[in-house]
Amino acid sequence: MSKFTLVVTTVSLFKIVLGICFFETSTTWDEDWYNQRGIIDFSSIICHNTTVADFTYELFELNVDRQESTFLQLSISYSNFSFIRYLINPVHIHKNKKNYYDFSGLSLNYCGIEQIVKDAFKDFKNVTEIDLGYNEINNLYFVSFLPATVTKLNLTNNKIQNVNFDLFLNRLDALDLSFNRIIRLVFNNLGLFGSWLRRVQKILNLNNNNITEIEFLPIFPPAAESINDLQLNLANNNILRVNFNNTLFTIQLKLLNLSNSLHNIEIFPFNLLLPNILDVSDNVGLKLDKTYNFAFLNSINFSNCSIDNINSRIFQGNSYEYLNFSGNNLGLIKDAIFAESYIQELDLSYTKFKNVQYMFQNCKLNRLHLSGNNITILNSRSFINVNEILWLDLSFNNLTLYYNSFVNCKGLQFLNLGFSNISSLKGSTFTGLTDLRVLNLQNNLLKNLEPKIFKPLIKIQTINLSNNKLSILATQLFNSLPLKYIYLSGNQLERIESNAFCNITQLKVIQINNNTGENLKIENEAFYQLMNVNKLELRNCNLTEFNAKYFSETSIQNLDLRNNNLRHVDFTNHTEYIDLKEFDLTIKGDLKAKSFLKLIFLQKITFWDSEIHNWENRTFQGLFNLETLNFKNSKIEHICVGALHGLFTVTQLDFQNIFRGKNKIHSCTFKTLHSLKFLNLSYIGLRNLESLAFVGLENLKELNLKFNLINCFENLTFSGLDELEVLNLSFNNLSNLKADNFKGLNNLKVLNLNNNKIAEINIGAFQTFPKLETLSISHNNLTKFKIGAFSHLQSLETLNLENNSISNLLLESLLPLTSLKVLNLEFNNLKTIGHIDIVYQFINLRHMGIANNKWKCDYLADILLILKKRKIGYSALYPNFLDDNIEGIRCIDVCKFLFCLQDTHGIN
Ligand SMILES: *[C@@H]1O[C@H](CO)[C@@H](O)[C@H](O)[C@H]1NC(C)=O
Ligand SMILES: *[C@@H]1O[C@H](CO)[C@@H](O)[C@H](O)[C@H]1NC(C)=O
Ligand SMILES: *[C@@H]1O[C@H](CO)[C@@H](O)[C@H](O)[C@H]1NC(C)=O
Ligand SMILES: *[C@@H]1O[C@H](CO)[C@@H](O)[C@H](O)[C@H]1NC(C)=O
Ligand SMILES: *[C@@H]1O[C@H](CO)[C@@H](O)[C@H](O)[C@H]1NC(C)=O
Ligand SMILES: *[C@@H]1O[C@H](CO)[C@@H](O)[C@H](O)[C@H]1NC(C)=O
Ligand SMILES: *[C@@H]1O[C@H](CO)[C@@H](O)[C@H](O)[C@H]1NC(C)=O
Ligand SMILES: *[C@@H]1O[C@H](CO)[C@@H](O)[C@H](O)[C@H]1NC(C)=O
Fold first, then answer.
1. Which ligand 2 atom lies nearest to the CA of residue 149?
2. A Pfam family in this protein (predicted)?
3. Ligand 4 centre and the CA of 305: distance in Å?
4. Is pLDDT larger for residue 758 or for residue 195?
5. Residues with beta carbon inside 6 Å of ligand 7?
6. Other C-beta atoms within 10 Å of 435: how many?
7. What does the mean pLDDT of the chain come to?
8. Fewest CB within 10 A of the end CB: N or C in the chain?
9. Distance from the CA of 49 to the center of ligand 1, in angstroms?
10. Which comes out higher in pLDDT, residue 20 or 248?
11. Which residues does a 6 A CB cutoff place in the pocket of ligand 4?
12. Residue with CA at minimum distance from ligand 1 atom 1
């Protein structure tokens, strides 16, 4: 959210438009960078297609109160600024004594800037970042004169050819010179780059130039400290020659990016630059056939370099955090290239390997990526030399698994065998994987699984078998494993045997969605003893039947049966109760009486995309914990009058969906909904409310009947709503209010009758509302009131009568309203009003809306004088200063037509 207080004319939440400039709070920024500098919020004033005179004018119009820790940026783009002499019009600075903005950032993009005069930015006293990307700058003369506060300078996409790093190095934290025309680089004083007092990350981007030659000149005096946090980006250049003319000092870079920049790895003195992370990806033709010393690097990315040979001495016996060789051609390598080394993560994906058993002699590896290779056979010798492997990705290969394939991977915790055309598993395939936590077999061709295939996986938590061709889930398959997640979606299941998930005490999620099998048969007790399942999903499985016999001693938080072919569900004939809390389902058929009887723990039930022909009486009887009953995108053709009976505990019900299109509410429909507090029946086309329609809603606080077609009530319609406090009847067809209409609403506080056709209020119409505080009858056809229309409303504080045709207001009719605080009479036809009497009669009156009546200006002035004296507010909701008015309240200036000579009342 914005931390600005804005004082401008057009205000929208995040964007304030003001001519050519607008104000915006922004969310897309590099959080780490700004958080390190204590900046929390980020906002911009953005101007397009402007000139110095125009945007400075607007800056002074836009009044923004800046708070600390907010980064306020001025962004100008698509304007013509080829020559910048100054950016703030001196005339404005002179005229406005108050300092203008305290900008932290300044950006000028796509402005065709060619030249910047020495002190052009001197008015930006506090600016820390300047972005001049996408211009025509070829000369860096201005840089020495930038305000001393600047630490980040972005010159991407300009025409710079020559740089002298002395200019920047001792004060900038970030310099972006990418996409320029630099051919040769000379680092004179790299050792002093940035300010060493603040330990923040430093960035030097030189990517996408045409650098062919780099020279590192010595540092004088030699820097005692090395650079730890510099990220040097030299990607997409054409580096042919590097001269490191002093071997006495080293620089330790955080990151050196030489992606697509280098043909020959020998020319770079990595041993002197010591990058923690080195990226040499995409250097096609890179050779690793000699011996290079990479022992001091932590992480190297060699991906996509078409490497086909690796000198075995380069990586042997060393240790790395991360080596990435993906997308090379290592398939023919037979040497033990990683022998005796320790590599935390090694990426050999898409490298055309057939066989990996040669390269790892006594190598310690934690994570190994082998996806997308041409590995076809996995047998007991495949991983014979890999030690300590925890994580192995073999996805996207064409695998045939033999006996004991992973017997040498003791300690493996994660194994990905997905998308690998595996058609069968041997009984001992997983032998030895006693530490495995996650096994992914998704998207293979598995049809049958041997019943004890997963038995060796004594610590397994997740098995993903989705998108295979399984047809049967057998009893013993997962027996007694410590599984938490089982994914079986997208198979061709025809049978789930009884006890298919037995003795899996920690199971949390079972997904069996989208099965294409013709007719899935679930055997009785299939979900026997699932003690703590959060979610059992059986969506879209062609199920025609579902009943309580599938469960026993089961506790499921959420059962999802959406999009099957269920015509009804039956949880009646079962000996025990089923502990199910949330139920999502689709029914195309009937809701039968008592069909959920055994789900007494159910708290929430949602019908999705259902077509219910007949909703019988007492369908939900026995659900003593049900709180929410929803119908999403569903149709209900017929509801029996007692359909909702038995829902004693429900607090949330989709009444709009249930009753949409039913034009009548029958007596006793809500008879047992004792817990309901809020009933929304708006927008459903109701015409008729039978007498006793709401009986039973003894705790209802709010009833919304807005936007219906109700034109009258029966005498006992609202009977039984003893606790009702808010009744909304706006936008109906009511025309006449009678005394008996509202019997039973003894506690009503708010009554909304706006936008009806009420022309008359009978005497005593509101007499049953001793506690009514707010009565709103705006947008009706009222012209006057009988004495007694408002009788017994001694608690009424707000009376809203705006937008009627009232031309005459008798004080006597208002007299019962002894507590009146707000009286709104705007948009009526009043010419006179007993204002003096009103003001003295209603001592609590705080506001009286009177705008848009037919006041004469003299008379209005008189009213306002009295109201002002008594400190009663009267300001108009829609002030009008265009016509004759006093303080925005329209009036008829009779004087004007009579050629009066004096303007005595200060008419505007
Ligand atoms: C810039 O404004 C001028 C007139 O103010 C207009 O003719 C031109 O089309 C605008 N250009 C852009 C890119 O908005
Ligand atoms: C510059 O910013 C700092 C910190 O935000 C503030 O204390 C100082 O008053 C500002 N200086 C000017 C000239 O606005
Ligand atoms: C410089 O600007 C470009 C384009 O807006 C952006 O992509 C890049 O990240 C910026 N450089 C730095 C160091 O913020
Ligand atoms: C890069 O520089 C070489 C000469 O050093 C030149 O032949 C080539 O055209 C330049 N490439 C670009 C894109 O400027
Ligand atoms: C190294 O720098 C010295 C002094 O700047 C210079 O004389 C010498 O030629 C340089 N050596 C190379 C190989 O460039
Ligand atoms: C994979 O290996 C088989 C023979 O083992 C070969 O026929 C096939 O072309 C190889 N595929 C790729 C993508 O290298
Ligand atoms: C895997 O085998 C299939 C057919 O058996 C073949 O179409 C595909 O190219 C093979 N993939 C690889 C990586 O060899
Ligand atoms: C579940 O485990 C118990 C005890 O470990 C065992 O007696 C019972 O046979 C198991 N159930 C099945 C169906 O294997």
1. 1
2. LRR_5
3. 22
4. 758
5. 374, 398, 421
6. 16
7. 86
8. N
9. 6
10. 20
11. 183, 210, 212
12. 49
CA of 672 to the centre of ligand 4 (A): 84
What is each CA distance from 844 to 50, 457, 536, 836, in whole angstroms?
55, 79, 61, 14
Contact 221, 249 (CB under 8 A): no
DSSP type of residue 873: B
Determine whether 114 is exposed, middle or buried from the number of CB atoms within 10 Å of its CB (0-12, 13-18, 19+): middle
- Are the CB atoms for 868 and 890 separated by under 8 Å? no
Residue with CA at minimum distance from ligand 8 atom 8: 503
| Alpha carbon nearest to ligand 1 atom 2, residue | 49
The reported pLDDT for the residue numbered 413 is: 97
Pocket of ligand 3 (CB under 6 A): 131, 133, 154, 156, 174, 176, 203, 205
In this model, does residue 223 exceed pLDDT 60?
Answer: no
Partners of 202 in the beta sheet?
230
- 125 Cβ below 6 A of ligand 2: yes
Nearest CA to ligand 4 atom 11: 210
Alpha carbons 167 and 181: distance in angstroms, whole number: 18
Check pLDDT > 50 for residue 582: yes
Based on the number of CB atoms within 10 Å of its own CB, is 869 exposed (0-12), middle (13-18) or buried (19 or more)? exposed
- Helix, strand, or coil (residue 900): coil
Please write the tens of the pLDDT for every residue from 667-696: 889 988 999 999 999 999 999 999 899 999
Please check whether the domain covering 1-156 is classified as CATH 3.80.10.
Answer: yes
Alpha helices, H only, 605-670: 655-659
Cα distance between the two ends of the chain: 40
* Token couple for 159: 């025409």
The one-letter amino acid at 133: G
Residue 445 confidence class, pLDDT cut points 50, 70, 90: very high
Q: pLDDT, tens digit, for every residue of 526-543?
A: 998 888 899 999 999 999
- Cβ(526)–Cβ(502) below 8 Å: no
User: What is the CA 101 to chain-centroid distance, rounded?
Assistant: 32
pLDDT in tens, 846-897: 999 999 999 999 999 999 999 999 999 998 888 888 888 888 899 988 766 6
Where in the chain are the domains? 1-156, 160-283
Alpha helices, H only, 223-381: 270-273, 312-315
Residue-level pLDDT at 345: 97
* Residue 680 and residue 655 in contact, taking contact as beta carbons nearer than 8 Å: yes
For residue 174, pLDDT over 80 is answered with yes
Q: How far apart are CA 668 and CA 617, in angstroms?
A: 12
Predicted confidence (pLDDT) at residue 222 exceeds the cutoff of 80? no
Largest distance between two CA atoms of the chain: 113
Spatial separation of the C-alpha atoms in residues 229 and 201, rounded to whole Å: 5
pLDDT, tens digit (0-9, with 9 covering 90-100), for 318-355: 999 999 999 999 988 888 899 999 999 999 999 998 88
Say if CB 313 and CB 336 are below 8 A apart.
no
Pairing of strands 628-632, 604-608: parallel
